[in-house]
Amino acid sequence: MRATSPVIVGRDEEIVLLSSALDAVQRRSGRALFLLGEAGIGKSRLVGECAYRAYGLGMPVLRGRATSTGLVVPFRPLAEALASRFRASGTPTDPELAPYHPALARLVPEWRRAGSPGYPETVVELAEALLRLLSVLGREAGCTILLEDLHDCDTETVAVVEYVIDNLADLPILFLGTLRPEPGAALDLVRSAERRHVATVRELGPLHDDQARALTAACLEAGPQEIPEAVHRRLAGRAAGNPYLLEVLLADLLDTGRLRRTDGAWEAVEQPGGSIPSDIVRSWARRLERLDEPVRDLLLASATLGSQFSVTVLQTVTGFEDRALFTHLRSAVEAGVIAPDGAAPDRYTFRHSLTAEALISSLVPAERASLARRAAAAIEHSGEPLDEDGRQLVASLQLAAGDRAGAARQFAEAGRRMLASGAHGSAVVLLERAHPLAAEADRAAVAESLAVARAEGGDLDGALALADALPPVPARSEAAARRGQFHIDLAWAAVMAERTADAALQVEAARVLLGPTPPPGRRAALVVVDGYLALLPGLPGTGRPPGDPVETEQAVQKAAETAEAEGLPVVACQAWQLLALLRREEGFDAADAALERMLSISTEHALPVWRVEALVRLGANAFMRTGDASRLLSARAAATDLGALLLTRTVDGLLAMNAVLCARWEEAQEIIDRSAEASARVGDLSAHRYLLLAGATMAAHRGRRRDMDRALAAFRRAGGEQSLLVPLRSGLCKAFGALLEEDPERAAAGLDEALAWELDHPSYYYLSGRYGLRPLLRVLAGKADRTELEEARAAPGGCLAWNRQFLDLADAVLLGRKGDPAGAARLMASFTQRSAPFPVARHLGLRLVADAARADGWGDPVAWLRAAEEFFYGAGVQPVSAACRAALRQAGASVGQHRGGWDRIPSPLRTSGVTPREYEVFVLLPERPGNQQIARRLSISPRTVEKHMASLLNKTGRADRAALCEFAAECAAEPA
Hints:
Strand order of the largest sheet: 2-3-4-1-5
Shape: flat
Number of helices: 47
Oligomer: single chain
Strand content: under 5%
């Protein structure tokens, strides 16, 4: 007889907490809750209550559970949760989710595409995609995701959960997780989330005495006063306040007749020879005895497989035919021992994980081992290939049977497969299980795999510690060859982590093991790692000097050819990518040729990540050479199609900067708004910094100094001053902005600062001004001659579209200065063509060279000044517009007055009578400049500035200049 309470007893405060969280989610205020407690304490009942209430509010509910079988299955609870929703409602069709389908395909089978090689998405990418999906599902009424038994889940799921709860504050999402207070990654996460105040944690304690009596009464559909005192003392003492244990013990009393209903009342009956079960194990042993023998055998075999089990595997172990198997399963379900697993039609689950443990514990140790041994052999010799789950199950059974070495081999193989699939955390867990179990002859190989898994998962220090502890191997032996490859793998991980000294030590260790003539493939891999190290100015702590670029390029070229011949496409892609970087100094044609080869190899060998890497780099080069972003857009589409979200955001940064240079402000802002916050959330600092710099550069190119300073402050907070973007910050952003403020001295200082940084650091950013804007300013100032100009033209950066327009202007100035107006005109025609994609740079260039053209008598400086004045006036860049008007007056040309401009003045100032000319002065005041500075920037006299200042004080009612400047700063801070 089953004894289950139809109501939840003793958890009123928790139910109020859940109700409050659901209400908050409906107001788009996300919540994260964790229920912590021992097995059977009532966590799942509260989850069920939460689901019931969420359904009542019209919320989508996603419910999943970690496996308690001991198997490491990456993302199992998440996949089950999504399946629980989509099985009934279908997958969402919202277009905004399309870019996230590839990343979510690991969790949603319907979004997997046949014939498409999967992208090994990072945990962060998957977590961000899941967050977007939950946001869409919860758009109308909120969304609830329920994950149970997190203490049993894989490290990848824990990482996703951490990301989700850290970022759901303003989203319509309720996250509810349950776990036991067992040491592990899940408990560490919960404690950390509680300390950081991003989640509420409620620890469920045992029921009090009166609550235990109320639960018993609810199970028996009676009043608390109807429960015999002896029964209550027996249950309360044995169950110790655990609701599940109380129900199981109560069911045993009912089944054995020691508690029965007589004449409408419950009474306790003592039976001769009957003994009260001393614990849950004896209770389940008695229940097993009352079942038919085939059903009993089936349940014991099932319990051997874990608290959740596959019907297919169970049939393999028991040998039952279909009809008998399902008849016995039905009997076990009717007995209340197991139930179908709603998340997977092929699986069943025990009503509680304690049930499986109790059934197994009812057997003597020798019987348990024999049963596990037979089950392992049946699965292993079934004729079906073992996947990662199957290997883990066999390993667990072999361990239960006492075969430690066999279990270690299965765990290790499953771990290596996890590593190959990119599930580094799960690989580490499995290989750590295998390591202490492995036989002496296998232990070193397991340790090597474990070290690589740790390194690729980000724990390079742990990997190096394992490497240092490995026993030595004979030189030039098979073991030495394997160990040498191991050190190469660690060296590559160290290079990617920018751990130069560690990478060099691993390379040296590999060389010692492989000897002077290593196999060609391993020699190629060593050369590639060495090549990346040679790019650096030195190797601190190793005593190795920087490599010669020519020798490095020749060695890497040979390594690329060797890797292709040896059938090592990944090493070949690494080599060609490095060659593309090295060959930039020869020109972008040579760099692109290397990238095209990388693209060809990655396509031929179905290496999707390397293919997209090649497309992105080719697109970036094309954009820099021509200003055309079409190939970069194609690369973004490929990255999105693959689900490579980190690569997508890298491309977004490049597209945002392209839009800035081309003065497509709304497009640039849309990209930055879309990707800057997301890149910060996923910890992609490289893309985040570039996007922040794009925002600062946009403000600078629009003449908005305060906006630029705010964006650069965010750039600094993100570590931008310690990145390779410093020369772009100094040149492309700040120096260009200074020119729009008519401050050529500050611009020259910024460009000199960028050059000094590049001379001290390796740099592959060619838009800092070194190869374009700086030579132009130096020519205009009479500090540079044709030799310096030709050096800039001959450099790889001199062929880029952005730089060529400025070099054409510089060349035109030199020719005009030499008395060659026809030659200067040809260069201006070239400039007109090259600068077409860059309207701000185009008109700034016209303004910059107009004075030199007028002084040397070439070109049409008046027409250029008129065009520049009209452009910058329309763009609201008052200093340049005013300077153009002043230059026109000096040239004796008529200067038309702009009678408009009133629309730019905020309504309160316009109502006070502030004129457009006064407003030009007003917008400069937040920087608190002196009258002389304002006069220079607006190309007016200091006396005129004094008149405008006096008028502004009068019209705004401010007492003094400081108050007026403060008022101007407040107006500038207000949104437009």
